[in-house]
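Task 17 of the worksheet. Students: predict the tertiary structure of the chain below and write it out as structure tokens. Keep your answer in the requested format; marks are given for formatting as well as content.
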Amino acid sequence: MNKLPTFLSLLLISSVYINPLVSAKQYAAIFNFGDSLVDAGNLCVDGIPAYLATARLPYGMNFFGYPTGRCSDGRLVIDFIAQELGLPLLPPSKAKNATFHRGANFAITGATALDISFFEGRGLGKNIWNSGSLHTQLKWFEEMKPSICSSPQECRDLFRRSLFVVGEFGGNDYNAPIFSFRKMHEVHEIVPFVVESIMKAIEKLIAEGAVEFVVPGVLPIGCFPVYLTIFNNEPVTNYGAQSGCLKNFNTLAWVHNSMLQRAIVKLRSKYPGVRIIYADYFTPIVQFILQPEKFGFYKQTPRACCGAPGMGSYNFNLTSKCGDPGATSCADPKTHWNWDGIHLTEASYGHIAKGWLYGPYADPPILSRDSAQ
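Model answer:
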């Protein structure tokens, strides 16, 4: 297997491009938890597995110039946030040659909010690929503590001055029954369990001393080529007239996000000294589709920049995904919101990160006036 570039090289790159902006809110560190939307390379720290297309070019073609384990052509939301806050790009938590005093990225591709035992109990154990659930990532966080602080009080002091990003979680949880072709009511039945798991994780981190959280919702998955391709025989009435997205999957995402926001409101009341931000993926992606020119994207049916022709016009093919033989990248990923049929382009992540930092895609924005010190 080819070795990925060392984290030191990534750190050197990030130091060149970091925005020197002095933000209204100073954070000592960022600790990030999540799945492939924010995985910075945890799945690849020991080298590039031959089977893993996301660790091959054209992944990483922009900004880095080589694959880093990120599932995009370049940077992710968490990268843009770190840079805007004047912090280095977060090292993958499994990196062996990194320092974690300014933060760590525990996210890993395939992560779920719920542990594998939940899915096994519902006959879905063979249909889910879970490389590190949310609560497994919390264990990794616990194991890291001795390397970043020398006493419980020192840890609490650091965590009180840090930003914790928890998610998004839920997408892979719902994929287990969706791609097992279970009925939609069975998928909806697990939403409360997913949201409860996220809330429990936040409470565990609050107990560690954390007081600043960003909690993203899930994406409008009905707009993504992977779903549009696999579920290509849906009735015409299940497609949005303007968006072309699958309504039933977007309804699922909306239900999750609504339940998550209600749970956040309750948690804010329970912990009045803790700031919990809801971060929105859903709205900006819908806007990318309905108002693409506003963001510099082509106006077209939801379509992967990197992929190969398949069912429909989505440029997604399960047998020739981005990074596989036969797949190619569009000439300029900045003109597309969707990267590989499953994840977003660097351009999309940049727009979303700006909306989380300054509004309107976060409640409240990370750098809202009430956060100034």
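Marker's comment: Residues 1-24 have pLDDT under 50 and may be disordered. Strands lie at 29-33, 103-105, 162-166, 212-216, 275-279, 306-307, 328-329, 362-363.
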